[in-house]
């Protein structure tokens, strides 16, 4: 599900994400293809760097952009191009590129925010104005993040790719019982829906970023992640982190999960595509993996 552009921008006039009118207006004209991603980046960098509360403005902008990515899946490609343009832009004479400086911490905060949909208490939840569920936003944000990894440079892999590993691992290497133990007694979701959604999110990481993820070495993430990469799970006690054997296991696991009764019909299609992509990348010559086009769902 997605939110119409007009309705989304109307809802953002309340400024709940702390973004300035310049931020909202820039996204508006970008979404309607009135300016390029490069031009939009120039406008945003100028606004953020010239104002006093640069860090606060940067935080507000990224919240707005990530909210758009989670709400408007039909427009994530242009958002990815905008982020790449911001990353490539020169620092202004007034100071460094404040937007890029706060990108990684803001993305990490957004990932954590959308992940928590499963822990909400049903007695305290209200239907959002755009009729999107927390699961919808989690899937949309994951697909967007995977495209950043696929199209971005090594920093996107270092900062976002490590989370892709944890999301895929936690979805494919845990049981339904384990998922049930993470939920509140009055959670808005069941263990079955939670696991199905996480499996679909794992498939989205693979579909939109899999060829890059399958070619990365664990050393790319730095020594600080060695303990997390090497942790044993309910289904895996082999090599740590990403490995050829683990990707093969994940493909088998996805095939098995697709046949489970609790799996939704919506999740089965991306799961099947993810299995095919893992197999295709595994067969591809090493030199061609980085050039392989990203599949879409």
Structural class by sheet pairing and helices: mainly alpha
Strand content: under 5%
The CA-CA distance between the termini, in Å, is: 13 Å
Order of helices and strands: HHHHHHHHHHHHHH
How many distinct helices?
Answer: 14
Instruction: List low-confidence stretches.
Output: 286-297
| Number of individual domains | 2
Proportion of residues in helical segments: 55-70%
Radius of gyration in whole Å, from Cα? 19 Å
Largest sheet: none
Number of strands: 0
Shape: globular
Kindly report the average pLDDT value. 84
InterPro entries: OpdG, Oxopyrrolidines_Biosynth-assoc
Pfam family, one: DUF3632
Write structural notes for this entry.
This protein has helices at 5-12, 21-31, 37-50, 54-71, 76-88, 98-115, 134-151, 154-172, 176-181, 191-213, 226-230, 244-257, 265-283, 286-289. It has 297 residues and is mainly alpha-helical. The chain folds into 2 domains: 1-119, no CATH class; 124-297, no CATH class. α3 (37-50) crosses α5 (76-88), α8 (154-172) packs antiparallel against α10 (191-213) and α12 runs antiparallel to α13. The longest helix has 23 residues, at 191-213. It is globular and about 50 Å long. Residues 286-297 have low confidence and may be disordered. Pfam families: DUF3632 (PF12311).
């Amino acid at each position: 599900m997605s939110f119409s552009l007009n309705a989304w921008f109307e809802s953002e006039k309340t400024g709940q994400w702390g973004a300035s009118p310049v931020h909202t207006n820039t996204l508006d004209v970008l979404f309607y293809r009135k300016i390029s991603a490069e031009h939009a980046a120039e406008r945003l960098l100028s606004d953020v760097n010239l104002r006093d509360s640069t860090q606060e403005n940067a935080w507000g902008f990224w919240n707005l952009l990530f909210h758009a990515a989670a709400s408007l899946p039909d427009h994530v490609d242009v958002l990815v191009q905008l982020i790449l343009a911001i990353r490539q832009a020169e620092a202004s004479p007034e100071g460094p590129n404040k937007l890029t400086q706060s990108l990684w911490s803001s993305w990490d905060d957004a990932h954590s925010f959308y992940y928590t949909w499963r822990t909400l208490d049903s007695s305290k939840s209200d239907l959002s104005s755009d009729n999107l569920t927390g699961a919808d936003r989690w899937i949309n944000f994951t697909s967007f993040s995977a495209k950043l990894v696929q199209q971005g440079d090594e920093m996107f892999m270092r900062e976002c790719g490590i989370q892709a590993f944890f999301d895929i691992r936690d979805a494919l290497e845990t049981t339904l019982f384990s998922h049930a133990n993470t939920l509140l007694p009055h959670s808005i979701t069941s263990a079955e829906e939670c696991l199905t959604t996480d499996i679909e999110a794992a498939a989205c990481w693979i579909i939109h970023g899999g060829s890059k993820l399958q070619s990365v070495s664990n050393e790319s993430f730095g020594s600080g992640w060695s303990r997390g990469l090497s942790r044993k799970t309910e289904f895996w006690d082999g090599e740590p982190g990403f490995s050829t054997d683990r990707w093969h296991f994940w493909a088998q696991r996805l095939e098995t999960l697709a046949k489970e009764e609790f799996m939704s019909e919506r999740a089965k299609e991306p799961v099947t595509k993810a299995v095919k992509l893992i197999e295709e990348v595994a067969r591809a010559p090493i030199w061609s993996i980085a050039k392989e086009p990203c599949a879409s769902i």
